[in-house]
Amino acid sequence: MRLRYIFLISILLTISAHLSAQNDRQLVRIGNRFFYEQNYAKAEIEYRKAIASNGGNTQAIYNLGCALQAQKKDSAAIKQYELAGKIETNKIRKSKSYHNIGVICQSHQMYKEAIEAYKESLRNNPGDNETRYNYVLCKRLQKNQKNQNDKQQNKDDNKDKKNKDKKQENKDNQQQKQQQSNEQMSKDNAEQLLNAAIQEEKATQQRLKKSMQKPQKRNLDKNW
């Protein structure tokens, strides 16, 4: 009796798993119809339902990435492609996930990341000419980007050097003007002191001259 009970539970679990598999595949098909109609938001909803029903459905995960990418939700799309690429066992389908990651990174001029994604795609499908072309193109674009960055860096460095030199020149000019101003003040002070001394000397000579010109009074003796 106990063995029959266990066998019955096993049958029920098998049927439940089969219905669940049918359910997620059906949801993927519904999502695909919305996707081909370019109704990407509704397609996203159906693919998410399929994944909720069966988290290992790599087709639903990959298609969700496509729906997100079509809506310009690139960061979210990359996460789905990475997950699909990680758990997918079919090398051709795995290569498509990494190819799409490369396409997104390339569109954002993230050439280093795009190159790595294309490499992984080619490891799984070496005969994919489109991926190989994108890989070579990104290598060239990365080199051009580096050259442009180097030129811009040199330009910025030269600009900074000119600004620094100009600031130093202005500082030197200010110091020179201050020094000249101080020297002029010292010269003016010296001239003022000299003029004051000359005036004081003249005044002293005039007082002395006037003193010598006055007649000297003789003191008379007192009568006895």
Protein architecture, described:
By secondary structure, the chain is mostly helical. The protein has helices at residues 2-36, 40-53, 58-70, 74-87, 91-107, 111-124, 129-213. The chain is rod-shaped and about 140 Å long. The model is unreliable at 1-19 and 216-224 (pLDDT under 50).
Summarize the entry for a quick read.
This protein has 224 residues and is mostly helical. The protein has helices at residues 2-36, 40-53, 58-70, 74-87, 91-107, 111-124, 129-213. The protein is rod-shaped.
Total of helices:
7
Helicity, as a percent range: over 70%
Oligomerization status of the protein chains:
single chain
Uncertain regions spanning at least 5 consecutive residues? 1-19, 216-224
- Secondary-structure-based class equals mainly alpha
First-to-last CA distance: 177 Å
Order of helices and strands: HHHHHHH
β-strand amount: under 5%
General form: rod-shaped
Please give the largest β-sheet. Answer: none
Count the E strands.
0
Mean pLDDT: 84
Give the C-alpha Rg: 48 Å
List the helices and strands and how they pair.
Blueprint: H1 2-36, H2 40-53, H3 58-70, H4 74-87, H5 91-107, H6 111-124, H7 129-213
Helix pairs in contact: 1-2, 1-3, 2-3, 3-4, 4-5, 5-6, 6-7
